[in-house]
Amino acid sequence: MRRLEPLIFEISKPGRKAYSLPALEVEKKPMSEYLPAGELRTTPAELPEVSEVDVVRHFTRLSQLNHGVDIGFYPLGSCTMKYNPKINEEAANLPGFTDIHPYAPEETVQGALQLMYELQEYLAEIAGMDKVSLQPAAGAHGELTGIHIIRAYHKSRNDAARAKILIPDSAHGTNPASGVLAGFQTVQIPSDSRGGVDIEALEKVMDETVAGLMLTNPNTLGLFDENIEKIQEIVHKKGGLLYYDGANANAIMGIARPGDMGFDVLHFNLHKTFSTPHGGGGPGSGPVAVKKELAQFLPVPVVEFDGQKYYLNYDVPNTVGRMKSFYGNFLVMVKAYAYIRSLGPDGLREASQDAVLNANYILRRILEYYDLPYDRHCKHEFVVSPQRIKKETGCHTMDISKRLLDYGVHPPTNYFPLIVDEAIMVEPTETESKETLDYFADALIAIAKEAYSNPEMLHKAPHTTVVGRLDEAGAAKNPRIRWQKGM
Amino acid sequence: MNYLPNTPKDREEMLKTIGVKSIEELFSDIPPALRFKGDMKLPAALSESEVAKLMRELAAKNTAQDFATFIGAGAYDHYVPAVVRHVLGRSEFYTAYTPYQPEVSQAVLQSIFEYQTMICELTGMDAANASMYDGASAAAESVTIASGLTRRKTALVSRSVHPETRGVTETYAKGHDITVKEVPFENGVTSVKELEKMLSGDVACVVIQQPNFFGNIEPVDEISSKVQAAGATLIVQVNPMSLGVLRPPAEYGAEIVVGEGQVFGNPMAFGGPFLGILAVKNKYLRRMPGRLVGETTDNRGQRGFVLTLQTREQHIRRERATSNICSNEALNALAATVYLSWLGKEGIKELAEHCVAKAHYLADAISGLKGYELAWKTPFFNEFAVKCPVDPEKIVKSLVEKKILAGYPLGRTYPELKDHLLIAVTEKRTKKEMDDLLAGLEGLA
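Above: the input entities. Below: the structure tokens describing the complete assembly.
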């Protein structure tokens, strides 16, 4: 019985309420006796007036309009929509984690500090790095932190002429945005015929004006850059640093470590690789790991252990400063910690192995209908393009994706990376069974056939969802971004 | 314990379809020298029951969970109603991602639209985004917005703004060549006299906090008129709970409102995840960072919601985006939406009034204790600074034994307020807890 739900404001009725407050116990005078009369609110905010049943039914019904990993397959490329173990959610709801103030004395929060300290150590080991900060709140926030660290490093060496950050054309959009936000000019490096960084182009632009290179490996095509040794040599030789975007780290746990590849700074996305959920868009967590020489630039505070107790260390000599209030998204760290303890070193490696196996399996199953721009084994994700379908039927990636919704599957990432026309980027993750992968591959094949037999049906898809294709252009032209009384 | 459904037989069949002999072959493009050999030095895998026990043990070491907390300073111990946890526990919400496919994401999209509306109602702004990481980074990004629009390169931030907000603002400003200058405070609020002197033609914006870090009510009208006269943008960081009793910042000329939304249904959680509120007047709309949800219609004529004005964002605009933010704090924004639905029009006023009344009861009683006095005679909301006859660090340490977190020693971030303790009171604090704190303070004087 899924159907559209009115706005919470539309079910509001004056005088109805859901809240209750503890006894006041003390005298309450008119507010004007405590606060300047001119500062008091005269018109109440139009918040809804509803009962507790209204609240629960409204959000429960709304929830039924959403697709999530717990409902079905969600092969959204570069987002690592793996299953989120329920024990991790339970752990993060323990009052011992939720009900502690960030400024509580250290002796009263030793469990939290211990968890953070150990998580720092685990992530450093998985990354092949030396020191970790858990402060960044998301992947892009980790990137920004990392690029600030690179900036601080060059500044500390009086090497101020380095104004550029190099970024491959296959990179996530956050990379160039983070580079600019940290004060750099970004320079795009083309990809070569095998989908990796074009070495000649890199050599040409890599000089003493370049601060560093940001790289995802495997990249957004799902391909491991085979020339990574050469790349790191070129960048380091000219005094630059290498940044590893850990968005795709689900392919390499226990198999290859960014630190060993020559990267100097990286971030992980705990909500991707370490299975803390994505929350409908957040909260995430984007810890940053660095090599020893860069530890002096990490944001403050970092968690340390003196052999007796865990404590917050604000004394980092050349710190980039603060990236966020307090210490990062702690409850997300709790879930990642529980995940790493559950899987252990072998489990993490097996997760990456099956993530890669699952991606390659789907890839090989659909190639009769979809085109592969770079014919190699992929890592945890792959990119195909419906070139032939487009040419022969007029159906686009958008149509195929919308039709997938009718099959109960969340579509892959569309139109990204930008270097592949009509890109379809698929990341199945390791927590999906062969049956699910087969169902998805069969659906893609069936849709390809539908494109030939009934293209119009694809253009109008989806047909079975509660809302149909939405007018995004109209929404942007005349933005209605809030409800108003009498609207 | 892992979560892999593939059986050995499945793997065999899949390898056959792929045309390779082993999984290892799929990794053959990684240079052999870079292959990780041996085992990662991590603790061995545990069963679910072992993990459950381990996590309970770690949580139990956090004794602060049972304490009566009078620490505020940016994170407040308000009650989180059961309905919030219940709704957030629905995996249709928490196992989804950014609503890129609106046809199967109406839950996230509509709830964000409701959130945007609530924040606009509370602040008087025209537009609110679907969240920033926290109040501090929201303030930092708002400085960038103002600098971009005014094309000026100086930001004035009051010293009465949360020290961590000031810290994050300074870090972010480095990337934009924005100079951040601090406006001193006087009598616990921003010095209007000093502010006026600092308002040069290159000032893009002035950031104040209302109520400020010390809990005090800033002279916002005076500040606002000076800021407006200088052609700068007034950015106000609010404790959004205070907007149950305090007037919306739009009424005194704020053009960007930021805030720490933790108070709306999010636990203190050792500092995160929290919720960055960012709301603006229309003229800043297209410079706003992050996600925005707009109303539209589908091809069947029904109302629906989509992400909108996405050309501001990094996944479209790349190096020309207004921000790099991608993952935000959507689930925390949902918590705020559910919480504000539960609290409603009357509830937020009544709750804010309880905080005011309880805080003033405690402040009055403390100022009656020998040796203790209120730092300033300035009106405050639910937090106030007390000048103590003993080192506040010592007070905090001593009262831990009584299961009381007495407050935040201001000397940690304000050397000039070394003997001051910042005390916050929420609706959760009982008279007995406050009286216990009073007895504790009295005993230490």
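Note for the figure: Chain A is about 35% helix and 10% strand.
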